[in-house]
Amino acid sequence: MSTPIHAGACFCGAISYTVTGKPALSAYCHCTRCQIMNGSAFIWTLHFPSSAFAWTHSAATDTYITDGKPWKTRHRCKKCGSCVASHNAKTDNWSVWGVQFERDESGATKDLDSVKPTAHIFYETRLVDITDELGKWDGYEGKSTRML
Ligand SMILES: [Zn+2]
Ligand SMILES: [Zn+2]
Description:
Low-confidence stretches: none
Oligomer: single chain
Bound molecules: zinc ion
Strand order of the largest sheet: 6-7-8-9-4-3-10-11
Number of helices: 1
Number of strands: 11
């Protein structure tokens, strides 16, 4: 089996990247930071080690840091405003959002099996109850209390 490569891009396509191999984490995050920054009840977030992340087009990238997390450098598109990736200087991981991965003709994420979410994290601050089979954790999967 070949190593999975997922291509991600902003809304307008001006900035894009690839992530290679299995993610260190793939989960639906219900934390308030993800909710507010994405305007969404929860977001499919993935962490990859630095060695697995590469920009394909980054000329239109604008970087910024938000209060409370100075170790996280976030990258957004100057043209469409979408944030596509952030680098954590503490862990040397990149965070990306699975919703931005390339889809097939039917709209499904390509090669989903290799990157599928395994849990709901920071579930305590959820805005909607989820009834799927995945574990619900009050922090990170396996490193916090499992709620459901
Ligand atoms: Zn863009
Ligand atoms: Zn979050």
